[in-house]
Amino acid sequence: MKGIATCQDCPINITIYRFTGIQGFFSVPKKWCEECDLLVSLVKNTVRDLGIEDKTKLTIRPWLPWFWQPLLINFAWHAPILTINGKLISQGIVPDKLALTKALSENVVQTTEFGKV
């Protein structure tokens, strides 16, 4: 139907900025790695549970070379940083599954309703 956005027209872009050390120079405390690993697992599982894998593009970026991007766009600096379609969802913590599901559901509605993108 003309005028209705399809998933090919407006995918859900999820970006995670995770802190990684530089091998040989410094290492990251294990707790920081656990938070980033938990966030990546949570996002992947939630996207799968909602059945929106085909509508979703997940990008995982190392924080150090990309720190400027979330800082300039969302004023976020503390990894792990989670954005959905450019909107800051969390920084420095792993959100609970309910909050992530709500944020993803809102973006699914926005990408499929007429006139919203």
Describe this protein with a few key phrases.
4 strands; 4 helices; globular; Glutaredoxin; 117 residues; four-stranded mixed beta sheet; alpha+beta
As laid out across the biggest beta sheet, the strand order is: 2-1-3-4
The CATH topology name reads Glutaredoxin
Helical amount:
40-55%
CATH domain class? Alpha Beta
Number of strands: 4
Residues in β-strands, percent:
15-25%
User: What is the H-and-E element order?
Assistant: EHEHHEEH
Radius of gyration: 15 Å
Assembly type of the shown chains? single chain
Mean pLDDT: 81
What's the helix and strand layout?
Layout: E1 12-18, H1 30-50, E2 56-62, H2 63-66, H3 68-74, E3 81-84, E4 87-91, H4 97-112
Helix pairs in contact: 1-4
